[in-house]
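pasting for the record
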Amino acid sequence: MEAKKYQILVKKKTNKLVTKWIMPIFFIGTFIALIKLVFGTNFLPDISFCASYPNIFCKLPIIRLPLGMLSLKFAVFILLWASIVLPAYFIFDRLGFKESNREYKETKADKIKWNRYGIYAAIIFLPLYVLFLIFFAD
């Protein structure tokens, strides 16, 4: 009886260890390694909208980011990261490492509270974003 309680306690601790530390470190680590691999090396050609057809839109800071997402390197990066992270996530999930089995039912008061917090965040960060675009964007 005592051994079974110990096994359940150890399983909960290892479950928290894997879901809170190992999985995020693995996912973020592969993200950073693939950024270095794809964007830091020259084995992929730089085929993008701005490199192929330089125009005025590539000089605008707000439009440059979405146009940069049309590059071959960005597409390869996303495909490689998804092909590594998604199977790893499903393997961890299949092995039983889940965040929680408890379902949370959101109440009407919770929805109102989170909507209010979203409005507060928009009020705070929108002027900061505009100031960043004015002073720091190229």
